[in-house]
Amino acid sequence: xxxxxxxxxxxxxxxxxxxxxxxxxxxxxxxxxxxxxxxxxxxxxxxxxxxxxxxxxxxxxxxxxxxxxxxxxxxxxxxxxxxxxxxxxxxxxxxxxxxxxxxxxxxxxxxxxxxxxxxxxxxxxxxxxxxxxxxxxxxxxxxxxxxxxxxxxxxxxxxxxxxxxxxxxxxxxxxxxxxxxxxxxxxxxxxxxxxxxxxxxxxxxxxxxxxxxxxxxxxxxxxxxxxxxxxxxxxxxxxxxxxxxxxxxxxxxxxxxxxxxxxxxxxxxxxxxxxxxxxxxxxxxxxxxxxxxxxx
Length: 296
What we know:
The chain is of the alpha/beta class. It is about 30% helix and about 25% strand. The chain has one domain (about 1-295): Purple Acid Phosphatase, chain A, domain 2, CATH 3.60.21. The strands form 3 sheets. Strands 4-3-2-11-12-13 form a 6-stranded mixed beta sheet. The chain has a 5-stranded mixed beta sheet with strand order 1-7-8-9-10. The model has no long low-confidence stretch (mean pLDDT about 90).
C-alpha cells in the first residue's frame, strides 16, 4: 500500500493541470492495446467501435484523454507498425491533437512513451499511403504519467492516471514482465494459460489494485479515474471517489467515461440490431449522468 501511495502522490504532484468549467466536454478511454493486426491484436475486433466512438466525440467537440495502454508495446517492439496497421484511428486522433483536444497518459504496456525521444521520433509524422506523403501526427507531444482536471471556480478536481503505480510486476519490475509477456506468456496463452502478472486477467490482482486506488481517492477526497484493470467502476455519491473507464478490448463492447456539463457518465459502445435486422453501432449510458458536485 505504501509503495502505491508514494507513486500516486508523486504522479499527482508532477501532473499538469488542465482547466475545466461548466461547459467542458471530456471523454476518457483506456486499454485499447492497439497491435499490428495479427492474432495477438486484441484491439482489432473492436476497431470499428472505437472509430465510431471517436467520430461521435470529435463532432461534439469533446477532448479525448487516453488513460494508458493505448498501444501494445510489450508484445510489439515498434509503434510505427501499430500506426500503419491502425492508420485511420491515428489519423482521427491527430485531428483531435491538431485542435488541442487530445492528451495521452502512458500505462505499463506503453510505458516507453514516457521517453520523449521515443514518442518524438516515431509520432511526429506518419506516412499517408492514400496520398503518398508524410502527414503530421502528434508533433511535440509529451505523454504524461497523470493529468489533473480542475475547476477554478469551485475547486472540484479529477485526477487521471492509468492505475498501475506501485504494482510490483507492472511498475517496479515492468521490464522483466515485458520480457515474460513478449517471449513466454504470449506463446503459452495459445495453450490456454493466463498470464499471472496481468491485473486484467487475475481477479485477486484486480481487487488488490482497486482497493489501493479507492483508498488513495477516499483519503484525498478527490475523484480518481483510472484504467488498467479493464473493469468499469462508477460509484454512487457517498460510496467512494474511485472510477474506472473499463477497456476497449472487451469481446462485445468498449466502455468510456464522459464528462459533460459538470456531469459524469459511464457509457458503452457496441454492435446493436434494429427491428428490421439492420446492424449499427450504438451508444448506451450504463451509469449516470451524475454531477461532480454530488461527490464533494
